[in-house]
Amino acid sequence: MTAVLEAHGFGKRYRRRTWALRNVDLTVLAERPRLAPFRSEICSTLAVLMHCDKSAVNVKAGTNEGCDCVGEGKAIAAYAVVILLPAGQGA
Predict the structure, then answer these.
(1) Which of 37, 40, 47, 83 is packed most tightly, with the most Cβ within 10 A?
(2) How far apart are CA 72 and CA 69, in angstroms?
């Protein structure tokens, strides 16, 4: 994720604090491993990496009910929605 943000120049703008992170919502689809035991650790790690409060990070996990490569346990999919506000517009 960090590499993708850097490739689009987001890292420089974010470090200059022209943007403020409001919320991150991450959904991970995987048949295994079960992520529930690691959810809190994942949230904490993402909060550190993105320089935000842990309360701004939400991680959900699910399965793909046996459909396609994810459902067969051959792949893992992740979807993220990030809400950014111009710095100074409240969090």
Answers:
(1) 47
(2) 5
